[in-house]
Amino acid sequence: MTYQYEIRPIRKSDNPRVAGIIRDVMTEFGVVGCGSSINDHEVDDMYKAYSDTQSAFFVVTNKTEVMGCGGIGPLQGEDKDICELRKMYFLPEIRGNGMGTRLLELCLEQAKERGYRLCYLETDESMSNARQLYGKHGFESLEKPMGDTGHSACNTWLAKDLLT
Predict the structure, then answer these.
(1) Does a structural domain hold residue 46?
(2) What is the pLDDT of residue 60?
(3) More confident residue, 41 or 115
(4) Which residue from 13, 19, 44, 114 has the fewest beta carbons nearer than 10 Å?
(5) For strand 66-74 and strand 56-61, is the pairing parallel, antiparallel, or unpaired?
(6) Nearest to 23 by CA among 5, 36, 9
(7) What CATH number should be reported for the domain holding residue 32?
(8) d(Cα 6, Cα 4) in Å, to the nearest integer?
(9) pLDDT tens for each residue of 81-109
(10) Within its chain, how far is the Cα of 52 from the centroid?
């Protein structure tokens, strides 16, 4: 299958566009306000926030413009072998074409390479397509959140064992 999009590591010059995508998508799904990741300090400088060796962050482009993003990093407040899938968002015009699967698979591969044994994520019940994608890739529902993300607005918690 030929894709008109490519996935590459984030660049510093991508920061404004990535911040805009995060804020636009979160607003689209009504996940705003106190306790939502839209307010995370890292949103305006994702390049720097994911520059350490235990993290990876990618953008999806149409060769010229960033259209989506996502990455992994250590889950704050948990064991060092647990990562979190973070800030995986796509503009409406590229949803449903397989890019979510490609980016998710890349993030999980990167997590395994960095020695993580479990990948955790938080989302909202309004993001049904995202939840369906995660389920297809082996993420299982949790009864309560893990770690210390500060995202009290999230109402859906999932995790995937990376060793099986």
Answers:
(1) yes
(2) 97
(3) 115
(4) 13
(5) antiparallel
(6) 36
(7) 3.40.630.30
(8) 7
(9) 999 999 999 999 999 989 999 999 999 99
(10) 16
Q: Strands 82-90 and 66-74: what pairing? A: antiparallel
CA dihedral 151, 157, 162, 164 (to 10 degrees): 170
Question: Which pLDDT value is given to residue 3?
Answer: 58
Burial 82-91 (b: 16+ CB within 10 A, else e): bbbbbbbbbb
Within-domain flag for 56: yes
DSSP state of 45: G
Domain presence at residue 24: yes
Q: Residue type for 136, please? A: K
Residue pLDDT, tens place only, 9-46: 999 999 999 999 999 998 888 777 666 777 788 999 99
Instruction: Read off the pLDDT of residues 121-141 as tens digits, 9 standing for 90 and up.
Output: 998 888 888 889 999 999 999
